[in-house]
Specification:
The complex is a heterodimer of chains A (575) and B (163).
Chain A lengths: L6 E3 H11 L4 E5 L5 H8 L5 E4 L3 H15 L3 E5 L3 H5 L1 H9 L4 E7 L15 H5 L5 E4 L6 H13 L5 E7 H5 L1 E3 L19 H12 L4 E5 L1 H5 L3 H11 L3 E3 L14 E4 L6 H9 L2 E5 L5 H4 L10 E6 L13 E4 L2 H14 L6 H15 L15 H11 L5 E4 L3 H9 L8 E2 L10 H11 L5 E6 H4 L5 H8 L4 E6 L4 H10 L15 H7 L3 E5 L2 H13 L5 E6 L29
Parallel strand pairs in A: 2-3, 2-4, 4-5, 5-7, 6-7, 9-10, 9-12, 10-11, 12-13, 13-14, 15-16, 15-17, 17-18, 18-20, 19-20
Antiparallel strand pairs in A: 1-8
Helix pairs in contact in A: 1-2, 1-7, 3-5, 3-18, 9-14, 11-14, 12-15, 16-17, 16-23, 18-20
Chain B lengths: L1 E9 L4 H11 L6 E6 L5 E9 L2 H13 L3 E6 L5 E12 L3 H12 L3 E5 L3 E8 L1 H10 L5 E13 L8
Classes of the chains: A alpha/beta (575), B alpha+beta (163).
Chain lengths: 575, 163
Amino acid sequence: MSKSKEILRGAEIFVRALKDEGVEYIFGYPGGAVLHIYDALFKQEEVQHILTRHEQGAAHAADGYARATGKTGVVLVTSGPGATNIVTGIATAHMDSIPMVVFTGQVATHMIGNDTFQEVDAVGITRPCVKHNFLVNDVSELAATVKKAFHIAHSGRPGPVLVDLPKDITAESCVYEYPSSLDMRSYKPAIKGHPRQIKKAVDMILSARKPMLYSGGGVVLGEASEELTAFTRKLGYPITNTLMGLGAYPATDRQFIGMLGMHGTYEANMAMHHCDVLVAIGARFDDRVTGELEKFCPYAKIVHIDVDPSSIAKNVAVDIPIVGDVKHVLADMIKALKENKNRIDKAALKDWWQQIKEWQDTDCLRFDRKTEVIKPQYVVEKLYELTKGDAYVTSDVGQHQMWAAQFYKFDKPRRWINSGGLGTMGFGLPAAFGVQLALPDETVCCITGEASLVMCIQELSTCLQYGTPVKIINLNNGYMGMVRQWQEFFYDSRYSHSYFEALPDFVKLAESFGHVGMRVEKTADVEGALKEALAMKDRLVLMDFITDKTENVYPMIAAGKGQNEMHLTSERELA
Amino acid sequence: MRHILSLLLENESGALSRVAGLFSARAFNIESLTVAVTEDPTISRMTIVTSGSDEIIEQITKQLNKLVDVVKVVDLNESNHIERELMLIKVSAEGDAREEVKRLVDIFRGRIIDVTEKTYTIEMTGSGDKLDAFIEALNTKLIREVVRTGVSGIGRGDKAITI
């Protein structure tokens, strides 16, 4: 054990700990408080530092990397503005339970509290939007704190953990030893579900006449797609996914009836409203899913499986709660299904599917295909066809995000990467960069809008530096589309500050960053342009699609409405 | 309904602000909060008095448990328990009031712990209700200063809350 006796400086301990944790990339931006660390990074080659153009970009890139791979994303930034610039990125990861460890530089311990240059209370500022955070007070605690940070970030319900590193700590020395295991008395996430609860749940599920399965991001995070698919197929029940859960169950499977919620399908929302047994799997009854809580699933008994007990019965009362890791719980439920002597009421299930079929016949996602002006839905649909549903797709936030979710059919988990909880515009491009870095051989597309795209446009420069050939599909309607849509519906079309009077020439912009730019203005040119761009395997292509300015996202549940009160289109009003 | 929650938490800097921040961020009520280290220097004991429906108390308990620094949360209302609060109160004690206040302190089984020509400083422990009753019994004009600790609670019987 001669290695364990090695005496290292804090900055070296930091880098060694990352190495021992198996970190391949850290996304970051240097500054005064982290210079010792950057010097230590310079002297080694195992841990690769990825320089973004803004700290927010570093956080989103690490987040995209984590979502696509399931590994923990790692960020390193300096104190003060470095720390404040990543808060949006941390909150984004927190809302979607993404494993991330963020290291912030801090002024020297004896300077803390003196309003020192580039000092900010990073631990205080981020406390409400991290899973946990630490300030390292002594170099002897550094290695163990790094270990704890990674352990907390990726176990249980994952989330971001911040470690604040005062500059003097990174200069002091001590014996380096990376703990091989960890036991925290105050942190023991649940794994197995309670067998009696599972038995009760299976009884209830088998007794259903109008069953509905509703699964969310927890299935993706918990690597439980296989179990979910087996469970669902065994039952033959209809299933819907939340925005965060898309891909956890194959979208092209006939038991899948689309996304649910505010812009979900008519059939998914109607089935939710009318079901008699609802099984929520790794989903958290978010307000964009439930609509008005008073009107939510009025006839249903509810089973809720979640690794986080505080997600259960937070918004909606539950009949059978099961706390546990979804992968384990679903495996146990499949076993319990086989052992259960009760049988599904086949006739009732047939009637239920008949009813769902009628709802599906409304063809709620149809749009006008005969226009010369480009419909945004058409672009997504074509992208889906040309990439055979196999691309990694990131998005920003707004109309384009909903169209991507509705028209790109994800058959595999971790392919759909978007900021569902916080709704962070500017997420898409840096996230796509992180995904492409992790998966250089995959097709990575960023479906975005011109308003979101410009929020982190500087990361085009990062993409050039690291040669990540992301395909940017800019659905450019000249408006903040979702804001415009709400203003049209709820503010008598007073389009207050939801449009741009000066937009850049996106083709020239892409070119100035060293990439390929394309402008597409007619429906007839969409397919050709996409083909051409996708064929450029080693170039980033920014495709600027000039789309219908006034297209709205349908169907839609307005605020305060129930799931059975959907707007289908402007002409086809309430269901 | 009013609930008394007993917490064991890591005696780490920032643990208190995590708990306090949770209550403000999620708009939970907080009536009082007391915290001090226990016989084990790595563990602090906190007593929180809060109120809310059963659903809200359940959610508060779950959210507290989710904090990484929190080792254990017990709702003392779920069984018999004892609550005590300490109050230090400085009152004017001149003329007729000097005798009257002394009598009241005796009735409420408090103690006068500091005396000047013009004032008494009284120490009193009990439930919050008892302390309220004492304040009400006093002539409000006499009260100069009130310091209350907030409630500390412990379960009755031989069971103990340990890690």
